[in-house]
Amino acid sequence: MTTTTTTKNQPSLLASLQSALQKRETRLSRRRLTILPPTSTDFSSNDFLSLSTSPLFRARLLAHLQSAPPRYPFASGGSRLLDGNSPYAEALDAHEGMRLSRAGKTVPFLHSSPESLEAVLTAEIAADAGIRDGSRNVFVVVESVYSMDGDIAPLREFVEVVERVLPCGNGYFVVDEAHATGVFGPGGAGVVKELGLQERMFVRVHTFGKALASHGAIVLCCPDTRDYLINYARTVIYTTAMGFPSLAAIRTAYELLSEGETEEPQATLQSLIRYLRARLASLDTLTLTLTLDEDGNPTGNPTPLFAVDHFPRSPIFSLRSPVPRHLAAACQRKGFVVRAIMAPTVPVGKERVRVCLHAGNTVEEIDGLVETIRGWLVERQSPQTQTQSQSQSQGLGLGMGQAQGEKRVARL
Ligand SMILES: Cc1ncc(COP(=O)(O)O)c(C=O)c1O
What we know:
This protein has a five-stranded antiparallel sheet, with helices on one face. The protein folds into two domains: 87-258, Type I PLP-dependent aspartate aminotransferase-like (Major domain) (Aspartate Aminotransferase, domain 2), CATH 3.40.640; 267-396, Aspartate Aminotransferase, domain 1, CATH 3.90.1150. The chain contains 13 helices and 14 strands. It has helices spanning 13-26, 55-66, 87-92, 114-127, 129-133, 155-165, 191-194, 223-232, 234-238, 244-258, 263-281, 324-333, 363-381, and strands spanning 41-42, 138-143, 171-176, 203-207, 217-220, 288-292, 298-304, 307-309, 316-320, 336-337, 339-341, 352-356, 387-389, 409-411. By secondary structure, the chain is an alpha+beta fold. Helix 2 (55-66) packs across helix 10 and helix 4 (114-127) packs parallel to helix 6 (155-165). The structure holds pyridoxal-5'-phosphate. Pyridoxal-5'-phosphate binds next to loops. Pyridoxal-5'-phosphate is lined by residues 143, 147, 176, 178, 207, 209-210, 215, 217. Residues 381-412 are annotated as: Disordered. It comes from Aspergillus heteromorphus CBS 117.55.
């Protein structure tokens, strides 16, 4: 237990909380729970396949719930190791999260850089005879699709590095497919499956809370690893297991995936991604630089007002801007739900408006969003605003011919 004492001169706990909140208010960074109007257009959630509003998903889930015998427990009643297990859960074999790492040392490598991974591994091998002779294990932990930038990790290149520099086979991959599940790979099975690397992965984590319209996650691993997690993963041991309605929702999503019902939304999503990418490239002529920041202070160096950062085929787009809250507010006023993502969620200087596409979005909605952004840019070109127009676009254009796996920042 932690205790704190309050004297007359010290602010009370509530006053401290209020003061912390007030600081955020002043910095315009106070978070609030919001309820979206039903007419708003979702360009923000992780519901990539729009399953959460799919009539097919709803009908199937309700049928599963209805088919439960009378008095079948809807709640789990405890962790899976105690009262929370069931034949239904065993059949789905869903595990909530995991706390896998008992690593003695963790070493970061540069984002999506096989060269950096190799340099880090080479240094560790040189420093540790155990890693060299294969008696000490190395886990390489990556996301397949990164949640903020939406870029796809170069998994094939990572595997090549690990197998080459750790020939004893003591390099193991743990891949989080949270944002790839449902979106990439055959039947939405993820990037690893798309690349045919499943036999090279030690653990794959697929979450159900994004494209699969439920919550929780599954760990795909070998039976020994599964038994190890049941014994050592604190979240499995101590967390109340999912109840029947959650399991039924996951089962519904599984069934739709395995029956091919999600192939069409998966393809629709990809076509909308290509469309938005091309439409954003049409803003190429509107390059502005900004001399004042969001609070009206001089930026020092003129900063590009708007740039698109997008990895081919990814449903996540970053509209980079030093004034993301202004841009997000302009979109929100037109009913488009997008979010400004600020530091420290992303590094300083990489603030952006994050746009997520979904299979249920329409071409008209995308047109509306892009025209809203165009209007915002044009308005900022007017003499009243503290921006300067540039006659030529800077840097790279956003091209459809971009090679897969190559990430570029387009200055629009
Ligand atoms: C990479 C990654 N993994 C796992 C999760 C956890 O997903 P959830 O909260 O849906 O369980 C998230 C959440 O955004 C994520 O970005």
